[in-house]
Amino acid sequence: MDVYGVVGNPINHSKSPKIHLLFGQQVGHDIYYQRISATDENFVDTIERFFTEGGKGLNITVPFKEQAFQLADSLSNNAQTCGSVNTLTFSEDGRIQGESTDGVGLIKDLTNNEISLDNARTLILGAGGATRGILPILFASLVGSVVLCNRTMAKAELLQEEFLPYGEIICQTSEQLSGSFDLIINATSASLSGEIPDMPDTIIPGSVCYDLAYAYGETPFQNWTKQNNSAKSLQGWGMLVEQAAESFYIWRGVRPKTQEIIQRLQTELEN
Q1: What topology is assigned to 2-100+238-270 in CATH?
Q2: What is the CATH number of domain 103-235?
Q3: What is the C-alpha to C-alpha distance for residues 144 and 121, in angstroms, rounded to an integer?
Q4: CB 3.0 to 4.6 Å from 198: which of 90, 174, 187, 237, for a disulfide?
Q5: Catalytic annotation, pick one of 15, 18, 56, 65
């Protein structure tokens, strides 16, 4: 049986094992998928031990996507552009290959929810690996200008400079945010600790708000934006399934039927 896993911190909340088990059942592949906790200090050792012990592939989640980028021996064009990695594969020649499937997962879920990105004025909260993973494909999907808001302005400005060839990025503090946005994406980890990101509620009305985090029930960001009259408030279940399907395809050569899995998860959420 081939072994896969997801590495992050915190990691106990991750639903990736369940999703990949459902993928395997759907396509008739017998796999094992586990949660793996790591720290900044032992991340590299954790990855190397997993592959040394025969593991085939890993998903990487918060906060290790940029470290995974540095660790990979080879990178896809998409991962090179993003500067972050959420999928690692151990190849037959002993090399670790890195890919980023987050952006594809987000765009597929937005499309499934009939959200237009054409010239959309977009606000992204956070400037870490999650933001890196979605910026290139957002610009490729013809969004308009992107406003980047992060507690550390220098980190946002670094992304602004790095992704300048792809489109217009404006860096602002939370105090500077004003006006309206077509799409607001929460790429911070605030929801994982039961918090909401630092931004004024006056910019929410009429916006589509998307939390990259996910939870049983609503995330704090999803609930807060609904209360402040967002046009639509979504969380990252759909993106999670869609990006997982891309990883599964990289590892197994078969693309699962994601809508079937999303519907099953949503049914479980409601019960």
Answers
A1: Rossmann fold (3.40.50)
A2: 3.40.50.720
A3: 5
A4: 174
A5: 65
Predicted pLDDT at 190: 87
Question: What residues does each domain of the chain span?
Answer: 2-100+238-270, 103-235
| φ, ψ dihedrals at 58, nearest 5° | -135, 140
User: Is 18 known to be catalytic?
Assistant: no
Q: Which residues of the chain have pLDDT under 50?
A: none
Q: Is 28 exposed, middle or buried (0-12, 13-18, 19+ CB in 10 A)?
A: exposed
State how far the Cα of 7 lies from the Cα of 105, in Å rounded to an integer: 18
Q: What is the pLDDT of residues 108-161, one digit of tens each?
A: 999 999 999 999 999 999 998 889 999 999 999 999 999 999 999 999 999 999
Could you tell me the two tokens for 38? 């790591």
Confirm whether pTM is higher than 0.70.
Answer: yes
Note whether 211 and 221 are within 8 A (CB). yes
Return the number of other C-beta atoms located less than 10 Å from residue 122's C-beta. Answer: 26
